[in-house]
Amino acid sequence: IQDAQQKYDLNRAAELQYGKLPQLQKELAAEEEKVRGEDLSLVHESVTEDEIARIISKWTGIPVAKLTESERSKTLHLDEILHKRVIGQDEGVELVTEAIIRSKAGIKDPSKPIGSFLFLGPTGVGKTELAKALAEALFDDESNMVRIDMSEYMEKHSVSRLIGAPPGYVGYDEGGQLTEAVRRKPYSVVLFDEVEKAHPDVFNVLLQVLDDGRITDSQGRTVDFKNTILIMTSNIGSQYLLEGIDDKGNIKPEAAQMVMNDLRAHFRPEFLNRLDETILFKPLTRENIGGIVDLLVADVNRRLADRELSIRLTDEAKTYVADNGYDPVYGARPLKRYLQKNVETLAARLILNDGVRAGNTIVIDVKPDGNGLTARAEE
To answer: Please, what is the angle between helix 90-104 and helix 127-139, to 10°?
Structure first.
């Protein structure tokens, strides 16, 4: 605060004094309350494995679970973990899991990233969700995903934003968006969203990362990518995937071939050849939607856990939401919006009207006339 005041940065000083400081004081009071009555001695006779792991994790940025849990066990059960979050993309999950198993077994070049993938498919089918699920499964937390929107890198000069501006240029001290993010989170999933929109010069940077597993930023620091998973998403050829599904819900070979033709026309061969897998995501079917409704409701229940409340949809309500929220073109996103507008709003009204108490379940059902949803509290 004093530093900001001395520099006459009054906005920053006010933000710290009236925003950050009271918040930190509040958090400190809460922590003091939590530890009151516990063993407060400064010296313990022994240090536990968890304490060592926690301290090393703070120093290195390596997730705690990576230091303590069996890497082998986690990798072998990776497909089961991913299937809990990603619905209807069995082939994609299988290909990603196999590539990571090869890397963890030491068969792949250890200096390169753990895995590099290109996810192709229509919007809302689980491309980003699979990236988030990988970050949580392998690196403990969804927050260990670095997301870079490649539509911001359409101009030739924008390459410098990835690795940092050259000396003498504006932004030199800030570092690059990609290099700084990975330097701070060396164990992470790096998601390049809508990669087809990037300027061709950007791919020179990506080629170096895919080939060498490291890159030098504008300040001469080498950033290591060998503990990262690189994922690029693209909508190229998605129109063929939407129309090219057979009766069993699989992608027709001719549709897959048309997608690959478009892909080769857009990206250079040396880029495509350096990827571990190019994965085609299928449009979601009506049968997939029930599982996605369950995932979305579980997410709402996690947010309501602090209030000791939960939401439950009857079978009829689940079918009603799935029927009205399903859109084969836009995938799960319209379903999520429908659930927010109709289910979450009903629950919120019930909560604000004091219609529920701690420990209650909010039951969502279909109205007797079959037109709309209703909410009630249940002990």
So the answer is: 30
The token duo for 194 is: 């809508």
Calpha distance 325→288 (Å, rounded): 12
Rounded to two decimals, the pTM is: 0.76
Q: Are 295 and 313 in contact (CB under 8 A)?
A: no
Residue keyed to tokens 């530890």: 35
End-to-end distance of the chain based on CA atoms, in angstroms?
Answer: 50
Residues of the chain with pLDDT under 50: 41, 67
Q: What is d(CA 121, CA 97) in angstroms, rounded to the nearest whole number? A: 19
Q: Using CA atoms, how far apart are residues 356 and 359, in angstroms rounded to an integer?
A: 8
Torsion of CA 324, 329, 335, 340, to 10 degrees: -110
- Reduced DSSP (H G I as helix, E B as strand, rest coil) percent helix, strand, coil of the chain, to 5: 55, 15, 30
Which residues, at least 6 apart from 196, have a Cβ–Cβ distance to it below 8 Å?
A: 150, 234, 235, 236, 266, 267
Q: What are the C-alpha distances in Å from 210 to residues 167, 224, 231, 258, 314?
A: 26, 11, 11, 26, 48
pLDDT, tens digit, 9 for 90 and up, residues 149-204: 999 999 888 888 888 877 667 666 677 889 989 988 888 999 999 999 999 889 98
Closest Cα partner for 270 from 342, 211, 351? 211
pLDDT tens for each residue of 213-255: 999 888 888 899 999 999 999 999 988 888 888 877 788 899 9
Token couple for 151: 């539509």
